[in-house]
Design a protein that fits this description.
The chain has strands at about 1-5, 10-15, 20-30, 35, 50-55, 55-60, 65-70, 80-90, 95, 110-115, 120-125, 135-140, 145-150, 160-165, 170-180, 185, 190-195, 200-205, 205, 210-225, 230-240, 245-250, 255-260. By secondary structure, the protein is an all-beta fold.
């Protein structure tokens, strides 16, 4: 029998056999220790857990107790270093890790430098404490929208990243963020750059089949109730399949509307 519980970017897997079970915790070192509740074995002799290993090494912690601490500090892990804890236990009993969240990666990054070069957003970050994706956002149409994602390396040294971005006419604003296991976001400061590319236009305002832009652009099309109909990037969008009526369109750095005939 096998049960798998996913928790954030770390997980606890409980694998049971006829004679014993194994609990596996995977995550990153965040400077804290694990605490375990250890019941008696079903036979009434001794405790449930008979072995604990950390990255393959048997711990020297005193596990013959109803509760004990797995001391991760003795392994000299760097913050953000990968940790695998295996807890092996006897049949017909189940131990409990009281604080598995201490192995979850956290959003602690510090931006040392960020700039736009051509169509690339580049940044250098430090003080990372585990692998979390960097989400790139651009301010368009009076809101921040997600325009890219780069996997973080998770180490505390200086790490360099870049991703392709699409500039609209005029002033462009970007920021990056990470979201941790508590669903809390950490943001960078905004960075701006001026694009001299011509403004995009579209036609027709009363359309039967295809909307055509004067150049490639990101776009969003909404119905009159605010529901998203289309979104994408290109020089045209086919709208022949949508119902007649009024629609709102975001493109380039503009918000406008059109009527489907």
């Amino acid at each position: 029998m096998k049960r798998l519980l996913l928790l954030g970017i770390s997980f606890v897997a409980i694998i049971s056999t006829a004679l014993s079970g194994e609990m596996v915790l995977k995550g990153t070192f965040q400077g804290e220790n694990l605490y375990v509740k250890n019941p008696f074995a079903s036979s009434g002799v001794g405790f449930c857990i008979y072995e604990v290993t950390v990255n393959g090494l048997t711990t020297t912690d005193e596990i013959n107790s109803s509760a004990f601490e797995i001391d991760l500090s003795v392994y000299n892990f760097a913050i953000g270093e990968n940790v695998i804890v295996n807890i092996r236990y006897k049949e017909d009993c189940l131990p409990k890790v009281l604080n598995p969240e201490v192995l979850y990666s956290r959003a602690t990054f510090k931006i040392d430098q960020m700039k736009v070069e051509g169509n690339k957003l580049k940044w250098t970050a430090s003080n990372e404490s585990g692998k979390l994706p960097y989400i790139v956002e651009q301010f368009r149409w009076n809101k921040w929208i997600r325009v890219g994602e780069v996997e973080g390396l998770g180490t505390q040294g200086s790490n360099s990243y870049s991703t392709t971005v699409r500039l609209h006419a005029g002033d462009n604003r970007f920021r990056i963020k990470q979201v941790d296991f508590k669903n809390q976001a950490r943001y960078s400061k905004e960075i701006g750059t001026l694009s001299v590319t011509p403004e995009i236009t579209f036609e027709p305002k009363r359309v039967d089949d295809i909307i055509t832009f004067s150049g490639p652009t990101m776009y969003e099309i909404y119905d009159e109730y605010g529901g998203i109909v289309f979104k994408g990037y290109g020089e045209s969008v086919k709208v022949s399949g949508i119902q007649k009526g009024k629609y709102y369109i975001n493109y380039d750095n503009k918000m406008d509307q059109f009527t489907k005939k």
